[in-house]
Design a protein that fits this description.
The protein has a domain at 136-399. It contains five helices and 19 strands. The protein has helices at 24-54, 61-87, 215-218, 287-290, 323-332; strands at 136-137, 149-154, 165-170, 175-180, 205-210, 222-224, 227-230, 237-242, 247-251, 262-267, 271-274, 277-278, 300-308, 313-321, 335-343, 350-354, 366-367, 370-374, 394-399. A hairpin with a 2-residue loop joins strand 17 and strand 18 (370-374). The protein is globular, with a radius of gyration of 28 Å.
Length: 402
């Protein structure tokens, strides 16, 4: 006798119904819906990133991509990656530079230097290299007179002796300084002084150098051409540009203030050197002091600017610098007040200019008759950087005609 299935016997509980597997069509429908949702969600992101890629810029694709990530909430991630990379690619200790900077004078027989050219820089390394710390006439002269720019180099500390930092010295009695806005920094439109530097003023162009951090990271403000792009903050290190072309560096609200002749102010972090003394917080890795960027002790390309006791302007830049070593270099060069500018090789550059009627084409080293040169050969940007559109603001230095 065949036994009945227990589950079919009278009174037996019925077996739960098994779920019916979705058909292939239903699965594809759900997948398409999910893809549409993802695409809709990513459309603003793709549009934003696409604008960065298609926008005319002198910055490379990699630099623009990193800056896009930084601007869209990824600043802590980018800073962490940069710090990790630099920590594992620290510059070597000891040794000698592979190549020493060379300076091409404007004329074969330079006139006597002006009386106020400073004494050689106080070096930070024993046993100096040839010409280390000795100011050399560089670039243009004014109507065959004394050179308008002097440059030199030095090692930034006694440990990393294969590195060199470039220095430039400028006198505001013979040159004038202007703050030029970039296409992205400080933002907005309608800036009169904006790259490319017009061909008509290039014969008077003496030098140009990078400005500070992006404003979002600078802890400070920006004022130019009668407009406040970002409010100026009390106490912050400030480059100040006057209507007569003179230039100063100081703490905003105390050492430098808004007066009727101020035409530009660019702030960035806090002073490195003040009253001839190093800042007491150079060793503090505080974002509130040194910004949401590479940590202050990380050895990386850095730049800075300051003024000496006579009001002369000093610029410094080089690889393998910490905040403290940059401050030491500027103080050794004679700065009584100094501030950090931008960092990383993509944003650190100083160019000096001279005339050569046979050299240069637009977008490379310059235009015919005006040729740009790097302060240090391993600065990554082309000397023609400011002869095309620039995303960042910068400082342009011209011959003073009055």
């Amino acid at each position: 006798m065949k036994l009945l299935d227990p589950d079919l016997r009278p009174g037996a509980a019925s077996r739960p119904a098994q779920p019916v597997a979705p058909t292939r069509g239903r699965r594809w429908t759900k997948l398409r819906i999910a893809l549409v949702v993802v695409l809709v969600a990513l459309t603003p992101v793709m549009w934003s990133y696409g604008r960065v890629l298609t926008r005319k810029s002198s910055d490379g694709l990699g630099v623009r991509s990193v800056e896009w990530v930084r601007d869209h909430g990824g600043s802590p991630l980018v800073a962490w990656i940069e710090n990790e990379w630099y920590q594992h690619h620290a510059p070597p200790k000891g040794g000698l530079p592979k190549v020493l900077p060379s300076v091409a004078p404007a004329v074969t027989t330079a006139p006597p230097p002006p009386a106020d050219v400073p004494e050689p820089v106080r070096l930070l390394v024993d046993a100096p290299l040839p010409a280390e710390g000795v100011w050399q006439p560089t670039g243009r002269t004014q109507n065959g007179g004394p050179p308008l720019l002097y440059t030199t180099f030095m090692r930034p500390d006694s440990v990393h002796t294969s590195l060199v930092t470039g220095l430039a010295w400028m006198d505001t009695k013979r040159v004038r300084f202007e703050l030029w806005s970039g296409s992205q920094e400080p933002g907005g439109s309608g800036w009169h002084l904006q790259a490319p530097i017009p061909v008509g003023v290039r014969p008077d162009l003496v030098a140009a150098f990078n400005s500070g951090f992006k404003l979002a990271d600078s802890r400070g403000g920006y004022y130019a051409e009668g407009r406040t792009a970002r409010p100026l903050a009390a106490g912050k290190a400030s480059m100040v540009f006057h209507a007569d072309g003179s230039f100063d560096v100081g703490a905003w609200g105390t050492e430098v203030t808004m007066t009727p002749d101020v035409v530009g102010v660019r702030q960035n972090l806090q002073l490195l050197v003040d009253n001839g003394e190093l800042a007491p917080n150079l060793d503090k890795a505080s974002p509130a002091i040194w910004g949401w960027t590479v940590q202050n002790k990380t050895l990386v390309w850095r730049s800075g600017v300051g003024v000496d006791a006579h009001g002369h302007v000093l610029y410094a830049a080089g690889n393998g610098l910490s905040v403290a070593s940059l401050a030491n270099v500027l103080k050794a060069a004679g700065a009584v007040r100094a501030m950090e500018l931008d960092i990383n090789s993509a944003w650190t550059h100083f160019f000096w200019y001279h005339d050569d009627p046979t050299a240069g084409t637009a977008g490379t080293a310059g235009t015919v008759g005006t040729v740009g040169n790097k302060l240090l050969i391993d600065m990554t940007k082309s000397p023609g950087l400011y002869f095309e559109s620039s995303s960042r603001d910068f400082v342009a230095v011209f011959v003073r005609r009055s």
